[in-house]
User: Which sequence fits this backbone?
């Protein structure tokens, strides 16, 4: 999704600061980029479709500078990714420049109205109405801040907006339903869609809430409400280092993040598990007890939600996973259910819509998220952080493992009865076992062996059913190859028709009980149709006899086995995509943080 950066107070370094910020926001996914700089009495705008390097090249060829600036990476919603549709957008005079993340729902009527009074539009975007609205208010005598406020007052929809106006050394900012955070340093003030954009310069942040405005000036910053009244905000300190957002020698963020999983899981468990006493404590949840649970999520987080619901059900808690976009528009009855929003970013519009709908109907809500200070964390009644650290690769990896781990903790901490000692021991071991898998995985050879396949299928039962869905999602999103995940038992009810010698089947088989025996039966079914089989297994069953390749995991509790099997599938997807030369960290058409519904 679009990324916004802005800064005031960096002097001659303004342009470099904006470009640095934009590069840190690349992970969000984008198709064009641009900057606006204010110098003396004029605003310069430079924007370009394509990667940031195209914008850098354009900037290198011209002389542009400014003391105050805003920048943007665009993920198209209205109009194709052209130079003209890239942000910033300007008014007719060229004195107002605006960047925007979100969707302005009433833009067509505003555009018609503005066009009728003589405003000329140069793009297909919804955003362009904003600078023209500001221009109209300035023309009718409003001062710059009032003109900005008036313009925002006309908008319906979701937005994080930053605006610069010639003749002021300020950036004007407004937020509704799209993330925005200020960065506060001694000599400069920043704003961005996400902290990594300015983390290099400061660890002090102020999160803006919906309906809030901010003005960043050379002598400070102020947050206000719609009427201009000052809102006192607390300054928070982020706990992670700027290096956490670099690649640390790995070819891709995704690979780095896959390898960071042992550390991420240790962080998730730290201080929450007491093996001697056999207890799990999530202090942030207080006395919260889970009697009936709805888990709402999208994408990878939805797969974690299925896994979490299975854990809770096994403890006797009625728990159901829901796709958040479905939940928001067709909510099921939720008497006494605690609604858990599972979201890495805490900013996914669909999942926020679901937790908001739940709150509107009086349900208690819990955010299970990685992002401290995110909208979901702030809006829900309770929050449980998964503590994975920043995840930059668009494909979620370490945060899925973090969600699985945190859902285990939640299940043990917030359901009736004693925590399961076997689970506690298994959780303690899981970071080391993930490391073992990473150190010994043969996933690269498997990826090489099946590079020219027609499609990739993933099957598993019980806790490995969501892992199969996740394995297929990882494969399709970063390799662009056709991949599907199924509950193993479902195969013969239709998907088996797709199975051929050109469709490898990745089967997760854990333990040697009934589930394993049944999945081995499914493996025999696909083998009989000549499909190559890759078994992801702890070696307890005889699945290896029927498999062309085996990806091993250490023996452990079934709950943590589903974390380890997933690591193998992450590596298969990564190596397949790497061998195919795909854009792994920024797959086509995808965005890290999906902030529009
Ligand atoms: C897939 C992926 C997406 C996200 C989904 C929800 O690798 O990253 O499917 O899981 O967009 O995002 P969050 O978890 O931020 O709500």
Assistant:
């Amino acid at each position: 999704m679009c990324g916004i950066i802005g800064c005031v107070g960096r002097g001659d370094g303004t342009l470099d600061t904006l470009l640095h910020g934009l590069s840190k926001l690349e992970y969000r996914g984008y198709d064009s980029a641009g900057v606006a700089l204010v110098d003396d009495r004029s605003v310069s705008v430079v924007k370009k479709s394509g990667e940031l390097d195209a914008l850098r090249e354009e900037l290198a060829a011209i002389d542009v500078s400014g003391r105050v600036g805003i920048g943007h990476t665009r993920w198209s919603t209205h109009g194709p990714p052209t130079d003209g549709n890239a942000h910033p957008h300007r008014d007719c005079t060229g004195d107002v420049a605006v960047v925007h993340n979100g969707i302005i729902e009433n833009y067509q009527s505003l555009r018609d109205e503005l066009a009728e009074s003589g405003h000329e539009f140069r793009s297909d975007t919804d955003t362009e109405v904003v600078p023209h609205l500001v221009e109209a208010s300035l023309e009718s005598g409003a001062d710059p801040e009032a003109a900005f406020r008036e313009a925002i007052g006309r908008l319906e929809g979701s937005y994080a907006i930053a605006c610069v106006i010639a003749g002021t050394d300020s950036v004007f900012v407004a937020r509704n339903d799209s993330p925005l955070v200020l960065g506060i340093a001694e000599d400069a003030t920043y704003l961005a869609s996400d902290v990594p954009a300015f983390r290099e310069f400061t660890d002090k942040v102020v999160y803006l809430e919906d309906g809030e405005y901010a003005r960043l000036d050379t002598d400070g910053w102020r947050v206000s409400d719609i009427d201009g009244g000052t809102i006192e905000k607390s300054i928070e300190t982020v706990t992670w280092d700027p290096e956490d957002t670099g690649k640390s020698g790995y070819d891709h963020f995704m690979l780095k993040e896959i390898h960071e999983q042992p550390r991420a899981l240790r962080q998730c468990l730290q201080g929450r598990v007491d093996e001697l006493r056999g207890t799990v404590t999530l202090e942030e949840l207080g006395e919260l007890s889970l009697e009936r649970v709805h888990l709402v999520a999208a994408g990878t987080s939805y797969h974690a939600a299925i896994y979490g619901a299975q854990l809770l059900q096994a403890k006797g808690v009625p728990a159901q996973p829901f796709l958040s976009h479905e939940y928001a528009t067709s909510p099921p009855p939720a008497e006494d259910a605690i609604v858990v929003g599972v979201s890495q970013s805490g900013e996914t519009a669909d999942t926020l819509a679901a937790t908001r709908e739940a709150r509107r109907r009086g349900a208690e809500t819990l955010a299970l998220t990685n992002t401290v200070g995110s909208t979901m964390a702030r809006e829900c009644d309770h929050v449980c952080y998964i503590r994975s650290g920043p995840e930059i690769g668009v494909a979620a990896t370490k945060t899925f493992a973090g969600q699985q781990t945190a859902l285990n903790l939640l299940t043990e901490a917030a359901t009736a009865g004693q925590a399961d000692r076997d689970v506690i021991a298994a959780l303690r071991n899981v970071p080391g076992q993930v490391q073992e898998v990473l150190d010994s995985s043969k996933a690269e050879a498997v990826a090489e062996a099946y590079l020219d396949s027609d499609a990739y299928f993933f099957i598993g039962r019980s806790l490995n059913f969501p892992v199969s869905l996740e394995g297929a999602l990882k494969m399709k999103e970063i390799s662009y190859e056709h991949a599907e995940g199924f509950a193993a038992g479902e195969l013969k009810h239709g998907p088996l028709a797709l199975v051929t010698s050109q469709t490898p089947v990745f089967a997760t088989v854990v333990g040697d009980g009934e589930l394993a025996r049944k999945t081995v039966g499914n493996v025999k079914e696909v083998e009989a149709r000549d499909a190559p089989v890759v078994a992801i297994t702890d070696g307890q069953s005889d699945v290896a006899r029927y498999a062309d390749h085996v990806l091993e995991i250490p023996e452990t509790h079934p709950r943590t086995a589903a974390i380890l099997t997933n690591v193998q599938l992450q590596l298969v997807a990564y190596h397949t995509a790497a061998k195919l030369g795909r854009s792994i960290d920024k797959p086509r058409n995808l965005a890290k943080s999906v902030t529009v519904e």
